[in-house]
Amino acid sequence: MPTGALLSGSSHSTPRFLKHSVTTSTGTRCKDYLPSIHSPDGWAYRLRQLVKGARSLPSSDSSSTPRGAGYVLSSTTWKLAASAMATFRNSTFDSTTYATFRPTYPRSCQATIELTPFKHVTGVDPSSKMIEVAQGQFEYVHGSAENLSFLEDSSVDLVISAQACHWFDWNKIWPELARVLRKNGSAAFWSHSKFRFTRYPTLTQKIDAFVQGVDPLNTIGLYWEQPGRSIINNHLVEVPEGNEVVLGAFSDFKRVFFTGDHYPSLPSPRSVIMCKRMSWNDLLSYINTWSSLHMFRLRNPADAENPRGDIAMRFWKDLMEGAEREDGRTVEGHDEVDIELPLAMIMVKRA
Fold it and tell me: Are 238 and 231 in contact (CB under 8 A)?
């Protein structure tokens, strides 16, 4: 069996879709969430095809060969690596809360089952705090995605990254991928943009105004790290194609947008597949994981004294009040709400 590498998302260090399930919306906007397991248009189908393609590659060496830091890879061993953004290196950031309340990738899409050939997982993250809270049977390396020096040339069959690639330096990443990927090896990268309410599309404008606004005391648009946040908002379209950086190194470059009707200007948008049902209280906890809020609070400590609550609490209350107007009833923190996360995906193969 060939060796492989997994560069997974910054938001949990561990590949979260390997570990967690998610309750999905039954709304029409997410209607092909489960059928996407088998549909050629589906996220899971595409990832499964990447895994199967990597699985079918011939082994390069039948002997046990020492690689990396303190472990051995052979023809029967898969190695995976996880990589993350540097936003949460700050010692004041609450990594445990972040790991608990960030939306997860769907077990119902069978990513867990399809990735079972990978026997050994090594997480690579620039944040030591993220590594501290990571759980599971995986190894972790403190480092960056731009430096995969622990991987040998042409040693990797599959590279994936979830919610991290908007922070990559692609002038360094593409040469590293060209080096470590075997011929016909695959890579996939995906990130989700701002959340949307399945039942309350009228609240979209309020979400955008808060997340992207320029009022330094009542919105958080000025507190996102750039250019990463803009790349997410634009669904990875600024990510250059691999062959623009390493001429002739890659093939079959594709961009896929699972954004539904939220962003109709994107080319051939497909139905949203990343959905989650949570309580309003959990939604507030998720909002509180945003890096921009962390920066806002560091720069505006007096905001915590606002009698209506801090900036996150006020935004949350505004959303709940909007939902109450839509439903004509009082909304409580324990009530459930469905959210959607429009997702963009990039796939490519090593030529």
Answer: yes
d(CA 36, CA 275): 13
Which parts of the chain register pLDDT below 50? 1-44, 55, 57-89, 92-93, 95-101, 106-116
Q: What is the pLDDT of residues 257-303, one digit of tens each?
A: 999 999 999 999 999 988 999 999 999 999 999 999 999 999 999 99
- SS3 per-residue string spanning 100-152: HHCCCCCHHHCHHHHCCCCCEEEEEECCHHHHHHCCCCCEEEECCCCCCCCCC
User: DSSP string of 60-89?
Assistant: S-SS-EEETTTEEE-TT--EEEE---SGGG
The CA distance from 5 to 249, in Å, is: 18
C-alpha dist (Å) from residue 81 to 6, 273, 328: 4, 25, 49
3-state secondary structure 238-281: CCCCHHHHCCCCEEEEEEEEECCCCCCCCCCCCCCCCEEEEEHH
**Tokens representing 207?**
């979400």
The first and second tokens of residue 268, run together, are 């051939």
Q: Are strands 65-67 and 71-73 parallel, antiparallel or unpaired?
A: antiparallel
What count of other Cβ atoms lies within 10 Å of the Cβ of residue 330? 9
What single DSSP character describes residue 59? Answer: P
Count of other CB atoms within 10 angstroms of residue 180: 23
Residue 18, pLDDT score: 26
Return the bridge partners of 343, or none: 192, 258
Sign for the CA dihedral angle at 153, 157, 162, 163 comes to positive
